[in-house]
Structure formats: structure tokens, C-alpha cells
Amino acid sequence: MSRPRTTSWLLLAVAAIGLLPLAGAAAVVQPQHASLPEDPAQLLKLADGAESSDINEFTALMQRLDDGKLKLSPQQQLHRRYLVARQIIFRGDFKAALPLMKAIADQSEDPTLSFRASATEVDLLVTQSRYEEAFARLSPLLEKLPQITENRVRIQTLGVASQLHLEAGQYDMAVNYAEQLLKESDNPKNACIGWYYMLDALLREGRLQAVGERIRGGMGACNRAGNVLIAGMFKSVVARFDIQKGQLAEAIGLLQDNYADVQRKRFPPLISDFDELLAQAYWKSGDAVSAKMHALRVVENNKGIGGLYSESTRAAYQVLYQVEKKQGNLSEALAYFENYMIADKGYLNDVSAKALAYQTVKQQVLAKKLQIDTLSKQNQILTLQETLAKKAAETSRLYIILLLIVLASIAMWTYRVKRSQLRFMKLARRDGLTGIFNRQHFVNEAELQLRYCRKSGRQACLVLIDLDHFKVVNDTHGHAVGDRVLKRAVEACEQHLRSTDIFGRLGGEEFGIVLPECTLEQALNRAEQIRVAIATAASGDDALGISISASFGISSVVLSGYELRQLLIHADEALYRAKREGRNRVSVVGHPEVFPTG
């Protein structure tokens, strides 16, 4: 199952190495520190970008710039502070770097430096989960971008725009900005970054064929870039693509071939990304020992950089849970599952916050435009009123009609903005493919319903559904057919649900149903009806004769209590037992007198 991932930390690696250094900076190497120039402007030029190519040289340059004998202008002092902030970013201390970048962006009289600092500030705001501020800061940068002629500033801003829109789920816009970045790139390093943004957006959108068609071009640019960090970011996307295509040996080989180089760069988020991908690839290839080793590395590494709710942490806990469950270590498996649930909920909240921030700022921009248009129309009306006051009564009637038309136009704009807001709020709660609740909204609604049942002393059950061998359907018939099968399965479920039941897609081919005011016996009967309905519906006339079934796991508040997390743990155990005992059946954990059906 493909999952989106948070890569704003990886994007900051690009900001930290300056995306495109000042002209000639990356190509200049000073063999001896004693031969460093005396001119502050030249020292700044050499240091800008040197931290990614020669950290020792960068340190020597910064020490030279700190020499009290050098006379730096106020603007040069700001440039030096900008380099210090970038060095802090490179170490992974994004919280400390944020106020420094904001001060530089606000104080610099050099528009280029101010623009670069503002673009980096956007990414730092994302690491602090301040998404609305990030989009609000990005919006004026994009408005001013057509006036910017300096290539390095344009490329950095396009990269920031591509990544931030990708994080908000606006994949088409992310691809558009990445394509524009590629067109304006004048060296392999910037081209590699453009390819990285583009393929990451296409991969998250599930457009695997488009990714496969473009990988070779991106790999060529990244191999020529000569920068381990940027190339490593791109190769992580390639490895994720290989894993989703089931090409596990290729993914492991690519990651292991570059693992030592990435470790030497000592950039924690990229190291975690590599370890997470290796954990997934090893687990899917049957090497549980290696999978566990790399997953534990992710957890330990992310503790040091505040990555509790990152995608890599969530994925690592999922692998650890699966490994321990397969080995029969149930207590360790349950502990890892609880950590997975915490990380998963935090991550989903983070994803939703980004999408909501994008729409909020978008509506604010529309509202501001509407306000400006309204004031302009009012001024036109006042001017017209003065003119018409001097004319005959029939002309005055024309004025009234015109005024009504203008006011109706304003009302229509206001209505459209409000309708757009309401439409987004609805979409934010729904799965894009099936139209049922997405995972986050399912969790929120389920917890509310369970609290109500607890207060009123009513029973409730949780049903987990997982389509059997669904990956085979995708691999054999393609994702378009797989999507049709998913929709038919959802339609089959909905025929047996009440208006009070909560139905959501938890991810991939897994679904959840909360059945309030339902005993365990009733839940078993309804789950059996749904099981039969799925098997019948999935083999209909328009399903291309594909045979598909589903396995069910049920938990009840009588045994598991009213906490959703515990209900999910027990239902998942039951689902695993149903899979283990032959699939296409309903199972309940903790009730040996209840036999699986099917």
C-alpha cells in the first residue's frame, strides 16, 4: 500500500546547501586556509554553498569572516548571519534557525538575500507545523516571482512552492512548479532537484506509469549533479517506486549502494528515510531480522530530531509490529502497535492541517481580491452617481439597475467563495476514490461515537475489513481495475449499513466500520452478510470476472472497552487470525466459542 510521506525536512537540505550558490562559489576550492582572501565580499561568495561540498573549507571561511579585523558592512553582516542560519539547518536544528531566517528576511535591504531567506523561512515554518503561516508567507513570494530575474532565487522559490503544494495534496500544482523549475535549471544539480520534486508528486498521486517513464531522465541528471545529499533524496523516491512495483531487490540494492554515502553526510531526516525504506523492503522480501534492525534505527534517529509524527516513524513502528506479531511476540507487538497508532494519528492530523492551511490561505486571498474588487466597484458607483445626478430621471433608473447588477455580482462572488469553503471542508473528510470517510475523519467520528456509547451504557463493535489478495489484482489487471473493485466492495458494504454506522477507508484495501448499539452476535451476522455481498458484487458483469473476497476481524466494547485504540488492536488480531486460517471469513479474538465463518 502506498502512503504519502512528509519530506519538508528533506527540502530543508536543499535550502541548507543553498540550492544554487552564488556564481562560481561551488567550483572554487581553496587548498590552504592561509590563502583565504581578505575581501569580505569574496569570502561570503566562497562560503555561500561550501558547507555541502567541503565542510572544513566552510568552517575556515566562517572563522575568517568572524575575525574582528575585517570590516563587514551591515548588509554583509546579514549575509554572514544567513550562512550561520543555513549551517544550523544543516545540523537539523530547525527551531533555532527559524527566528534567524525571519529576521534576515525582514531586515535585509538586498532583495535577493531577503527573498532567499523568506523562501527558507517557509520550509522552517512547515517543520514547526505552522502551515497557515507558511502558505501566507509563500503567497507574496509567488506574486513577486515574475519580477525576479535572478535564476538562483527563482529556482529556490519554485522548489519551495512545489514542495509545499505537494505537502498540501495539491499534486498537479506541485508538478507544474517542478516542471517550471526544470525548464529554468542551468546545471545538473538544480535539474536533479526538479526531477525529485516532480517524481515525488507523481508517486504520491499514484501515477506509477508516469514515474517509470521519467526515472531515467532524473537519474541521469542526479548522477551528474555530484552532490550526495541531493542525489540521495532523488534515489529515495526511486527506491519507494521500486518497492511499490514489487521490485524489492532493486530497491534494496539502490539503497545499500548509497547508504554509506548518506550516513557520511550526517543529515538525520535523509538517513531515517533510507532506513525506513530498507525496513519496508526487507520486510516484504521476508528478511525480518534486517527489517527490524533498520526500523529500530529510524525510531532512535527520529527521537533526536523531534520526528515522533513523521511518516518514517509511523512506517517503522508498523514494520516492528508486523515483525513481532509474525514471530509470536504478542506483548511486544501490542506495544509497537500502540506506538504506531499514536504516530499514525499525529501524522494524519499533520496531513489534514496542511491541506486545511492551503485552502484557508487560498480563501483569504480570494476574499482579499473580492474586497478590493468591491471597493473598486463602489468607487465606480460613486463616480457614476455623481454623473447621473446631472441627467434625466430615466437615466437615474439606469443607474439603479446598474447598481443592482453590481451588487448581485458581489453577492455571487461571496456565495461562490463560501460554497468553495464548504466543498473543501466536505472533501477534507472524504476518501477521494470511494467517497466514504478517510482515515482521520473515521478515527475522529469513531471516538465521538464510542464516548457517547460509554456515557449511555450502550454496546458497540468494531469491524475491520481487508480485501484478500488485492495486490494480485493491481499487479495483474492494473490500478484502474483495482479501483473499480474497491468501489464495488464499498457499495456492497453500504447496502448493509445503518445511518448511525461509521464507515471509513483506513488505507489501501483496508476498511473499518463502527457499529453503535450492536451486540457481538449482531455484529457477526452483519459482517457475514457483508462478506457474502462483497464476494457476490466483486464478480459482477463489469468486474471483468475477477474473483475477490474479504477477511473480517471484530472486536467488542464488552471485551476491549471503549477506547478505539484497544478495539483496533483486538480487531486487527482477529483479522490476522482470519487471514492465517484461510481468508474469506469472519473472526473474533477472545471468544473461542465463536467459530470463523465462510
Automatic annotation (TrEMBL):
Q: Which UniProt keywords apply?
A: Membrane, Nucleotidyltransferase, Signal, Transferase, Transmembrane, Transmembrane helix
Record Pfam families: GGDEF (PF00990)
Reaction catalyzed: 2 GTP = 3',3'-c-di-GMP + 2 diphosphate
Membrane-spanning ranges: 398-417
SMART domains recorded for this chain?
GGDEF
User: Domain GGDEF: where?
Assistant: 458-591
The cross-references to SUPFAM superfamilies, in alphabetical order and at most eight, read:
Nucleotide cyclase, TPR-like
Which positions make up the signal peptide?
Answer: 1-25
Q: Gene3D superfamilies per the record?
A: 3.30.70.270, Tetratricopeptide repeat domain (1.25.40.10)
One MF term in GO for this entry? diguanylate cyclase activity
Entry EC no(s): 2.7.7.65
Identification of the protein by name: diguanylate cyclase
